[in-house]
Structures are given as C-alpha cells and as structure tokens.
Amino acid sequence: MNSLFQHVAITAGITVRVAVNFMPEQSRTGAGRWFWVYHIRLENHRDDTVQLRTRHWRITDSNGMVNIVDGEGVVGESPVLSPGQTHDYVSGCELTTHRGTMEGFYTFAHADGTLFEVAIPFFPLAAPAEEAD
Q: PROSITE patterns this protein is in (predicted)?
C-alpha cells in the first residue's frame, strides 16, 4: 500500500509520506518550464485528534534559487485527523530548471489550540535526462 510513497518523515506521531512524479505532458521544456505532481499522505498515529493549520515549503531549483511558500491549510483544506486517520492530497510544482528539491513543515494544532510543527520530508524534483534540454 505504501510502496507508492518514496519519502517519509515522522514527527510527534504524525507521519508524512510523499510520492512525486514528473509530468512531461504538463511541462513546456522548450519554454523552460518543468512540472511535477506530488501526492502527500498524512497519518495520525497519536492518541489525540489534531488539525493541520498551515504549511511552509522551501522549494529550491538547480540554480540555487529558493522560493518560500507559506499558507493556510493544504489545497484549500485544514483537515482534522482523529487517531488512526489519514488524509491524502495532490498538488504540483513548476520550476524553470529540470531539477530541484522541496522540503518544509506543517503546523498542526492540538484540541486545546497549542501548535506543533511536523516535518515534510526532503524530496528531489528531477526530470528525466531527455526532458532536460
């Protein structure tokens, strides 16, 4: 079931799994645009219910350009995860280089409102060699 997910981070009982795929049909490599889709699964292995509040991404291209993305929730949602629950979502990233990386963290809230950070694992964005030109 989890063989799809290549990258995993576990923080404070929350598991974040990531699968990433290059999308040649959505890329315009001749125009210097490469596009990836990533699938994220959040798993609550805690004994309490938590809610995802914010996301923080650090996206770096192969030229070393860094883009920081902060925002509320994920893809318009702020999922509440009871013990044992999971939440999946899919999003995308476009770069002006054929390689890059993503990493970051989510901020979750306990029922009493206290916040804690959960790591998003570092993962590469890499187009196949034939798509690099």
A: APAG
